[in-house]
UniProtKB/TrEMBL annotation:
Organism: Lates calcarifer (Barramundi)
NCBIfam families in alphabetical order: panK_eukar
Involved pathway(s): Cofactor biosynthesis; coenzyme A biosynthesis; CoA from (R)-pantothenate: step 1/5
Protein's name in the database: Pantothenate kinase 3
One Gene Ontology cellular component: cytosol
Keywords for the protein's UniProt record, in alphabetical order: ATP-binding, Coenzyme A biosynthesis, Cytoplasm, Kinase, Nucleotide-binding, Transferase
Subunit architecture: Homodimer.
Phylogenetic placement of the source organism: Eukaryota, Metazoa, Chordata, Craniata, Vertebrata
GO biological process: coenzyme A biosynthetic process
Family of the protein in this entry: Belongs to the type II pantothenate kinase family.
Gene: pank1a
Length: 344
């Protein structure tokens, strides 16, 4: 959304992505407030800024990711810091209640929102907190957001990266990169589910397909199989597990590589294939199950993404593959690339 300098919106500046599992909220904290502005600033606005920037936890489930904070950023002619806050979507009624308790509507601010929840909770914002949402399309926001974050970087460092030698755990290295000439590109958006976009320019793109097997599937299955409660806990368990204790590999069937078709023995032939054996079930750990779940989901996403790239002829148009950071899920990205290389 472009904003002219002469029509800058009043503070506070917020943006929300209300997803199926998580709500992601970004808050712009101005650091160039003049003495005159501070004097004119209403106490309610000061209270909201203090509350958001002086805490790293909000209630039982709200978290401010301090490590993601972008400092000294210029937006619409103002300098400030971007703060990133998240909480479960199921806690949205409590968030709306907080907005009402803090009399947020008195600030006459525009609350920009995207994601399915911008539609689902629109009436609740209006009736419970007297707030109107400015709804923005989530895929438009995704593309503009990716390019914006790449342009501003992360406190002086590139935000995007790729894994060099991802299939070799000994020599795998994370390398920074920039999206100087990104088009065409395949953009795989992994949320509760997955949307895959073929992007030809900042304004020209299409949703090619998607899959229901996404982050929500990973967390849901991990909760069922391991008893974990949070996404962070599930990823931590997965990082300590060995999926080969759960999955049946090509070498378990062929005794080695399937050389005729170039399949390595380490490739997964059947996700959770060992779980047909009671002895195998009795010998695995919860960490193994979490890792196998991660591999199953990322293998599926990588397979679909590659087929989309082939069908859209993106691989012919663009040979060098670029990967981007998505919410710090490095183990997910590395796993995705590793298993895609094994199969393809």
């Amino acid at each position: 959304m472009k904003l002219r300098d002469e029509k800058k919106p009043a503070f506070p500046w917020f943006g929300m992505d209300i997803g199926g599992t998580l709500v992601k909220l970004v808050y712009f904290e101005p650091v160039d407030i003049t003495a005159e502005e501070e004097q004119e600033e209403v106490e309610n606005l000061k209270s909201i800024r203090r509350y958001l920037t002086s805490n790293v936890a909000y209630g039982k489930t709200g978290v401010r990711d301090v490590h993601l904070e972008l400092r000294n950023l210029t937006m619409c002619g103002r300098t400030g810091n971007l703060h990133f806050i998240r909480f479960p979507t199921q806690a949205m009624p409590r968030f709306i209640q907080m907005g009402r308790d803090k009399n947020f509507s008195s600030l006459h601010t525009t609350l920009c929102a995207t994601g399915g929840g911008a539609y689902k909770f629109e009436n609740d914002f209006r009736t419970m907190a007297d707030l109107e949402l400015l709804k923005l399309d989530e895929l438009d926001c995704l593309i503009h957001g990716l390019l914006f974050v790449d342009r501003v970087g992360f406190n002086g460092h590139p935000e995007c990266y790729y894994f060099q030698n991802p299939s070799d755990t000994q020599s795998c290295v994370k390398k920074p990169c920039t999206l100087d000439n990104p088009f065409p590109m395949l953009l795989v958006n992994i949320g509760s589910g997955v949307s895959i976009l073929a992007v030809y320019s900042e304004t020209n793109y299409k949703r090619v397909t998607g899959t229901s097997l996404g982050g929500g599937t990973f967390l849901g299955l991990c909760c069922l199989l391991t008893g974990c409660e949070t996404f962070e806990e599930a990823l931590e368990m997965a990082s300590k597990g060995d999926s080969t204790n759960v999955d049946k590999l090509v070498k378990d069937i062929y005794g080695g590589d399937y050389e005729r078709f170039g399949l390595q023995g380490s490739a997964v032939a059947s996700s959770f294939g060992h779980m047909m054996s009671k002895d195998k079930r009795d010998s695995i750990s919860k960490e193994d199950l979490a890792r196998a779940t991660l591999v199953t989901i990322t293998n599926n996403i990588g397979s679909i993404a590659r087929m989309c790239a082939v069908n859209e002829t993106l691989m012919k148009r663009r040979r060098n593959k670029e990967q981007t950071r998505k919410g710090g899920k490095e183990s997910l990205k590395a796993s995705e690339d590793h298993y895609a290389r094994d199969w393809f």
